[in-house]
Amino acid sequence: MTHLTTTLESRLFGRYWDDGLLDLFAGIATLGIGVLWAVDLVAIGAAVPAMLAGLWVPLRRALVEPRAGHVEFSDARTGRNRRLLVGNAVLGLLTLALFAGLIVAVRSRPLALLAVIGPGIPAFLLALLAALTGWGLGLPRFLGYAAALCLAGAGAALADAEPELAILAGGLVIALSGGWRLGRFLRIPVDHAEGSE
Amino acid sequence: MTAAKQPPLLPEIDSFLHELVRLRLLAFLSVLKRADFVYLQRHTGLSGGNLSAQMTKLADAGLVEIEKSFVDNRPRTVYALTAGGRAALAAYKAAMTNLLETIPGWSPE
User: Does residue B93 sit at the A interface (CB-CB below 8 Å)?
Assistant: First the structure.
């Protein structure tokens, strides 16, 4: 039996991400990719989200669960999350491969359109990942992050700037939003009431 | 001579479930696999004492199972709806739906 269609479950699932930790992780991952891109370590940049993923459970347990509690959603919801995670990872790798292919294509035979939008392409592709995350988790603010990345990408393309500047600008927006959300969440006192129940 | 027992005119409602706080807790647990004390307290707005007391009643009735443990030296109490709890909630919902359907709809004038 699936509960994905119930309003209560969807609302609770949406609130699960309200603490801002996911936003902060997404922002730091984007910034990490941008920084590594700037020092010509693009391939290592792809490993940043994977490295951050190892910190997810310990940080969530240390910072979030004492304040928000522990919850396990239905098997249907868990399965959907797993598919979204795998989909994002595959899309991330495809994004990297696509961009590498575009670079080779532009270098071997300059294409007018690619030459114009080239600096914005990495940010556009990261925007696609953000949009997919927002759609999959039901978090509209991630669509806003996708829009910020698109704007940064368009800016980079128009100014013919380096691609990493667009990534860093978009990452900064996401990280600041995540940091603000997490800071607000951490002001919630840790409830020790259960110990005295 | 005793009169033949007549079927009830209205569906019978489980009065134990028909209590707002217990019903709210069961509604939350019905859409979750498991949730701990802090999570339920945060989302229901109940006081710690009230939440604990109601959960104990629900567990005594066999509707909810309670698992107590320690995580990082902190007590954690996790609650989940039992199969019996799920069936009781489904029966309650069906009975309430039937009851409400007996009420005629009036259009506001």
Answer: no
Euclidean distance between the first and final Cα of chain A, in Å?
34
Whether the ipTM is more than 0.85: the answer is no
Sequence-separated (6 or more) residues with CB below 8 Å from residue A83? none
Q: Is A72's CB within 8 Å of B27's CB?
A: no
Do residues A139 and A177 lie in contact, with contact meaning Cβ atoms separated by under 8 Å? no
Per-residue pLDDT of B20-68, as tens digits, reads 999 999 999 999 999 999 999 999 989 999 999 999 999 999 999 999 9
- Could you give the CA distance from residue B33 to residue A55 in angstroms, rounded to a whole number? 24
Structural domain total, chain A:
1
For residue A197, tell me if it sits in a domain: no
Å between B40 CA and nearest CA of chain A: 8
Identify the CA nearest to A130 among candidates A177, A185, A98.
Answer: A177
